[in-house]
Specification:
Its EC number is 4.2.3.4. This protein has 373 residues and is an alpha/beta fold. It has 2 domains: 173 residues, Rossmann fold; 192 residues, Dehydroquinate synthase-like, alpha domain (Up-down Bundle), CATH 1.20.1090.10. The protein is built from 13 helices and 11 strands. The strands form 3 sheets. It has a 7-stranded mixed β-sheet. The chain has a two-stranded antiparallel sheet with strand order 7-8. Strands 10-11 form a two-stranded antiparallel ribbon. The relative contact order is 0.10. The protein binds glycine (GLY).
Length: 373
């Protein structure tokens, strides 16, 4: 019997557990049963994930006498849209999902965010269970209740805080991820060490390569530690009035780079986060906040993992530094017209900074762009 951990997210009436372990999908029926008013769930997923994991999930449910119907959306970020939302909600209504029923979101961040939002607005809110299938979704997007869709104005601009009732983070599902997707998700794992736990970052420096090769116990520990950190932050600041903003380490740079590359597979979100974290440490060092050698240490780990680390790792053209700063100014985290960065006093000591000097920012970006081939 392999280890199963439960990380509790203590949010009063909205509290829930993130269950972490192997073989959880096969046990989904037993794990979900306590939440069901009747033995029936509706599963939202996407076709690629459905081909890999839906049969196992439905078998795990029916082993406990739980009937399920499923709807597979088109894979990809384009589905996290008004059209994808309409398709999901209309299907849930066709399935006669009632107020006390449970919707299951089986997939990566797109399905989790979309399925969670559909559940939030269906009949003014039904409960939902997240079964995240990507590393990024297991350590970040499935925990904390941020749900939503993209619009032509930008990413995640329409949504709701709607906490899941349960999250099943099955480590075995990570086996089917392409290496690039796994490493992109690892960008969010490193982020937790960088923002708040230097000992975890040191552990990742030692164990990261084994974890990437498939070591299950290393994967389990990394997911658990990441979820513990996220659960703690979300419990203290559910709706991002303060500390939760630290989870956006690397994200101001990332969002600008994603916009500059057109939200396509030139740059995956987690890759942008990793590059953004390296840039945030560079800015921190230039401002004299952390040691001059710290950014090199961050980059050395990302490189050792074979990850995107610098702007030079993004293929194709990029706009100049001023245009990247202009894209940052469109970020939804801009407050009163001021750019907001998460910087660090050292590895594991991130804080919110609203007064990064504009010329320093431009010179860090210009140098990073100049280092491109
Ligand atoms: N992904 C950032 C947050 O959940 O707050």
């Amino acid at each position: 019997m392999t280890q199963i951990d439960r990380v509790h997210v203590p949010l009063g009436a909205r509290a829930y557990d993130v269950v972490i372990g192997q073989g959880l999908v096969a046990q989904a029926g037993a794990l979900m049963q306590p939440f069901l008013a009747r033995p029936r769930v509706a599963v939202l997923t996407e076709s690629r994930v459905a081909g890999l994991h839906l049969e196992n999930l439905q078998a795990g449910l029916s082993a406990q006498g739980i009937a399920s119907s499923a709807h597979a959306l088109t894979p990809g970020e384009g589905t996290k849209s008004w059209d994808g939302l309409r398709e999901s909600v209309e299907w849930l209504l066709d399935e006669k999902v009632e107020r006390r029923d449970v919707v299951v979101a089986l997939g990566g961040g797109v399905i989790g965010d979309l399925g969670g939002f559909a559940a939030a607005i269906l009949r003014r809110g039904v409960r939902f269970v997240q079964v995240p299938t990507s590393l990024l979704a297991q350590v970040d997007s499935s925990v904390g209740g941020k749900t939503g869709i993209n619009t032509r104005h930008g990413k995640n601009l329409v949504g709701a805080f709607h906490q899941p009732s349960l999250v099943l983070a099955d480590i075995d599902l990570l086996d089917s991820l392409p290496k690039r997707d796994f490493l992109a998700g690892y960008g969010e794992v490193v982020k937790y060490g960088l923002l708040g736990d230097a000992a975890f970052f040191e552990w990742l420096e030692v164990n990261g390569p084994a974890l990437a090769r498939g070591d299950k116990s290393a994967r389990h520990y990394a997911v658990r530690r990441s979820v513990e950190m996220k659960a703690g932050i979300v419990a203290r600041d559910e709706t991002e009035q303060g500390e939760r903003a630290l989870l956006n380490l690397g994200h101001t740079f990332c969002h600008a780079l994603e916009a500059a590359t057109g939200y396509c597979d030139r740059l995956l979100h987690g890759e942008g986060v990793a590059i953004g974290c390296a840039l945030a440490f560079e800015v921190s060092a230039r401002m004299g906040l952390c040691a001059q050698e710290t950014p090199s240490r961050v980059r050395a780990h990302l490189r050792a993992m074979g990850m995107a680390t610098d702007l030079a790792d993004i293929a194709g053209d990029l706009p100049d530094a001023a245009a990247l700063v202009a894209l940052m100014a469109q970020d939804k985290k801009v407050q009163d017209g001021r750019l907001r960065f998460i910087l660090a006093r050292e590895i594991g000591q991130a804080f919110v900074c609203d007064d990064v000097p504009g010329d320093l920012l431009l010179s860090v970006l210009s140098e990073a762009l100049a280092a491109r081939p």
